Amino acid sequence: MVALNETHDPALASWVESANGGVSDFPVQNLPFGVFRRRGSQEAWRGGVAIGDQILDLSAAHAAGVFSADAARGAAACGETSLNVFMAMGPAAWSGLRLALSRALRRGSARADRLRGCLVPQAQAEYTVPAEIGDYTDFYTSVFHATTVGKLYRPDNPLLPNYKWVPIGYHGRGSSIGISGQQFARPRGQIMRSSAATPVLAPSERMDYELEVAVFIGCGNELGQPVAIDQAEAQVFGLALFNDWSARDFQSWEYQPLGPFLAKNFASTVSPWIVTLEALAPYRTAWTRPVGDPQPLPYLDSGATRESGAFDIELEVLLQTQRMRDSGQVPTRLSLGNFSDSYWTVSQMVAHHTVNGCNLRPGDMLGSGTQSGPKPEQAGSMLELSQNGKSAFTLPNGEKRTFLEDGDAVVMRGWCGKPGVARIGFGECVGTVLPANPVA
What we know:
Layout: E1 33-38, E2 46-51, E3 54-57, H1 58-63, H2 69-77, H3 84-88, H4 91-105, H5 112-115, E4 119-121, E5 125-128, E6 136-139, H6 143-153, E7 169-171, E8 177-179, E9 182-185, E10 188-191, E11 200-203, E12 207-208, E13 211-217, E14 236-243, E15 246-247, H7 248-254, E16 268-270, E17 275-276, E18 284-285, H8 303-308, E19 310-311, E20 314-320, H9 322-326, E21 332-338, H10 346-354, E22 365-367, H11 382-385, E23 393-394, E24 400-401, E25 409-418, E26 421-434
Parallel strand pairs: 6-22, 8-16, 9-26
Antiparallel strand pairs: 1-2, 1-5, 2-3, 3-4, 6-7, 10-11, 12-15, 13-14, 13-22, 14-16, 14-17, 18-19, 20-21, 20-25, 23-24, 25-26
């Protein structure tokens, strides 16, 4: 686990003035990585780092010759159309480039004049998924979400007995993961309506979002070689925001006996910026397991995990309906929770995923599963907020919702902040549900 170093100093400021003042998600203490190009251009996609309201074009910075040998190799790798090559270089390369970037972007840097021409305004950029995601596994790490959903479907047995022993997950679909701004047609699938004798093929009537954290794998492991829990985070490049859209009516019909399928594979949305675990070091917090619960098996337990294996990340969901957009209204908050409420940690997900010898590869992505807290206002899905459609909630403009309607845009935000530490953020993860496509 990464220790604090000079890059975390809260007194640091940047010569990119929009990064200063404690209001930007992207101060010099953050420096998240993404893949971008100028909007509407035919430029090649390439890696960049967010700083204030700007992007430092790493390909251009490398060409400007501002980095020494080791950092230069990392910056050159970021000039590719995805971050996979850089991810595969491992923690020393990630940390080395981050340190070089921190020093180059600090106020008073001798390299400022050479780098000013390498900045691209974020408002003029478009983004793509930052890694080629070879495989995607979705976990189920929130015991509060699992228990609430279990009560909806199994009131007498809400939490299955394996939950507190095993980090539950399923293999998802990487090809339909899109970048923030993703718009997708309401999916069609089989629905078994209540009291019906046979299912019908129809557009989903219970479209939902799931507030998740994406875990991007860095260097990975060889087939047959498990990753020990105290080495697990050395395989993790960083975290992003993730919306695992769900068709709840498809899901309730298809999930037994093999789990989610068409309910999940039509679209998922990830935020553009990957915040490194090193940037998150000041926001580590203790991970605990209630005394009355089963304690993890030894391969999922360690002193380091218990001491600082969780991350204090605020997670917010907002909704903007079509009517709200038409009238110029900003999105309204639906929930606010925290990633530290997870029952299983990032390191436990990696250790469990590989304990059977499964090989994770650079760019692979793990979803945390829906992040919900212990309070109703911390629910990470509309399934919970509306009690499976039984209780509509009213938005500030008078509209009511149980599930998502056409034109609804879901906005997810994440940030870390506490006294004496620089606030850092993840930006936004935005996606919009469109009407179902006509039947062919």
